[in-house]
Design brief:
eight-stranded mixed sheet; four-stranded antiparallel sheet; 447 residues; 34% helix; alpha+beta
């Protein structure tokens, strides 16, 4: 959809946040709570609209336009079309560090099954020409709403902090393309280079009102590998006259499992998953080739490199063992453009983030979480020559009673990327805004 197809939320003057000095006296915590209560109806309307009108990676024109316009209305200098549908909003507020806050905005090709009154009914033709349903099944609509709420909050609290805020509206996270595209388009050259970069991601296991932090590796390297297993086709009744790629592909799949179990140090996390296998069209026809699609997960760059090398070696070795000629060796293609490096939370920054969150939300609301093998291209913001310290924390989005019941019974809740994933908006968004505000007021505290 294009910008002409949406209705934008413009806050009435009575709802807009007042300057900090015009607010009633009270603690800073009370002040933020009052402002957030006044602003939440508009944030809820924004969230519901974004949820009902999701857009796929590299197609986020409407979403990016809405968020950019909201940030501009909050007083930020906004530049659009950075690395595609990305946007950057800057608010300079005196001397001090530069803090980057990121929110991703793309959705997934899923048909929503939440039953929500604002559930997505969207179907689009994707960039490959295939008609698909689209759903915010990973909470990027939550992230965008939190960013807008945080932007308004911090613009209204200018007298409480000093420095530069740089809000990044990032496209194409689900394909691992958006962060790299924005950096390539000059994010750190055309705009203030950040001293810190912070992002949140909603959680399908943490109860709302809580957040989760972890120092060091938080998310994994993600690589995509396509393998074309070639053979010599023929009649299924005369296998001796063929080189069966289905049998060869089966041997390769089993051999690939030894990369983790026998070639990788047990203390080094790694995953090799063959998620797709396609070959043949009829029971009595041995095909000429079989297609495999893999996802690889790891933390260290050394394990990543070894895993990819081992895949190439195993494919070639199994093909040689099967008697394939040189010109029929398997073709192994690593999809470099969509590779995502591991997210490493800077330990010093993460300690400071955790302290700010605990001071604001309370120690019991800040959970220590385990590293995951999912990927997040937010990692790219810390992998440039500038070596910006980054921290990604998790935002609880689940009804507490449901989270407790799941923990008690072991029955999992709908996960991220599930057609039934439905975060609870109000407490999730409010906690997200409070969390980002608390972190900013700490990192950009007046000296």
């Amino acid at each position: 959809m294009t910008l002409r197809h949406f209705s934008l939320f413009v806050l009435p003057a009575a709802i807009c946040l007042l300057p900090a000095q015009a607010q009633p006296a009270g603690t800073l915590h009370d002040l933020v709570a009052q402002k957030l209560a006044a602003d939440y109806p508009a944030l809820d309307a924004l969230y519901r609209d974004l949820h009902a009108h999701p857009e796929l990676s590299l197609m986020e024109e409407r979403t990016a336009g809405i968020v950019a316009r909201e940030l501009r209305a909050a007083g930020y200098e906004v530049t659009e079309h950075i690395g595609g549908h990305g946007a950057v909003a800057v608010l300079k507020n005196g001397a001090g560090p530069t803090l980057l806050l990121r929110a991703d905005i793309d959705a997934l090709p899923l048909q929503e099954e939440t039953g929500l009154p604002y559930a997505s009914q969207v179907r689009v033709t994707n960039l490959s020409g295939v008609e698909v349903s689209v759903m915010h099944a990973c909470g990027h609509d939550i992230h965008a709403s939190v960013l807008v709420g945080t932007a308004r909050m911090l613009a209204a609290l200018r007298d409480r902090w000093s420095g530069t805020l740089e809000l990044v509206v990032q496209p194409a996270e689900e394909r691992g393309l958006g962060a790299r595209a924005m950096l390539t388009d000059g994010l750190y050259r055309r705009f203030p280079k950040p001293d810190f970069a912070i992002a949140l991601h909603d959680s399908a296991t943490l109860p709302y009102g809580t957040v989760g932090t972890i120092e060091g590796f938080a998310m994994a390297n993600v690589d995509w590998v396509d393998i074309t297993v070639r053979g010599v086709g023929g009649h299924g009744a005369y296998p001796q006259a063929t080189k069966d790629p289905i049998v060869l592909a089966s041997r390769i799949i089993l051999a690939l499992q030894t990369i983790v179990s026998r070639e990788t140090r047990p203390t080094d996390p790694a995953v090799v998953t063959v998620g797709s296998i396609h070959g043949g069209a009829k029971a009595n026809v041995i095909p000429d080739e079989v297609k495999l699609q893999l996802t690889l997960r790891s933390y260290s760059d050394a394990v990543r490199a070894h895993t990819i090398e081992a895949i190439r070696r195993i494919c070639r070795g199994e093909a040689i063992a099967a008697g394939l000629p040189e010109d029929r060796m398997p073709v192994v293609t690593v999809i470099e453009d969509e590779a995502t490096p591991a997210t490493f939370n800077d330990p010093a920054l993460t300690k400071r983030v955790r302290g700010a969150l605990a001071g604001w939300l309370g120690e019991t609301s800040v959970k220590s979480i385990d590293p995951e093998m999912g990927g997040e291209d937010f990692s790219q913001f810390g992998r440039t020559v500038e070596k910006v310290p980054v921290c990604l924390f998790r935002l609880g989005a689940v009804e507490p009673a449901k989270a407790a019941e799941s923990a008690r019974t072991g029955i999992p809740l709908p996960s991220l990327h599930s057609s039934k994933f439905a975060p609870v908006p109000e407490p999730t968004i409010k906690t997200g805004v409070e969390s980002m505000t608390a972190i900013t007021l700490d990192l950009l505290a007046k000296k």
